[in-house]
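Q: For a teaching session next week I want to show students how multiple molecules come together into a single three-dimensional assembly. I've collected the sequence lines for a complex. Could you give me the predicted structure tokens for the whole thing so I can convert them for display?
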Amino acid sequence: EAGVAQSPRYKIIEKRQSVAFWCNPISGHATLYWYQQILGQGPKLLIQFQNNGVVDDSQLPKDRFSAERLKGVDSTLKIQPAKLEDSAVYLCASSPRRSGGADTQYFGPGTRLTVL
Amino acid sequence: GNSVTQMEGPVTLSEEAFLTINCTYTATGYPSLFWYVQYPGEGLQLLLKATKADDKGSNKGFEATYRKETTSFHLEKGSVQVSDSAVYFCALNNAGNNRKLIWGLGTSLAVNP
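A: Of course. Below is the structure for the complete assembly, covering every listed component.
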């Protein structure tokens, strides 16, 4: 079974530029997550999708960050415009269950963003 | 609310030493508990998990037992290797919480030859 795919792996941009990240979850997984991990810290959940609907985006800085999962499969996360403090690894994860029960999240390799 | 507390790092051990990384939690209901590992420059990988009290998760020589009476899920390995050097994260996942993972801060482990 293929894992969670993310691209690009690395991205360097200047502040005020825009950037987009792509994630393809494990086939059949209903739930998709985007996390931000700043160096030396644990992951911070940005947004959670159940199929193509948003379940939780309470920690997403909506003035500059946006995410979509239009067909309930792959997803994109965009930052516009980027700030220096957005430098981090952006992790995508997916989990299989549609409703009820606690289950395992499977992570992609992440995209390392550097904002100069 | 739900929370996870891990022992602070960094932890430095010699090869073949015994490892314990403490993890305690606070949660309502009956959460599932996880250990994830992050090797240098890589994403998070599930190391092991336990879904109910007294379950023992194990993988790659690592073990952790879900102790409801002490609300703990300590990670152990009898003999660490240099290749175990990584950051280890304890996490919980509560069914009634939109399956949101609640993370500890991570414990960095360095194993010297």
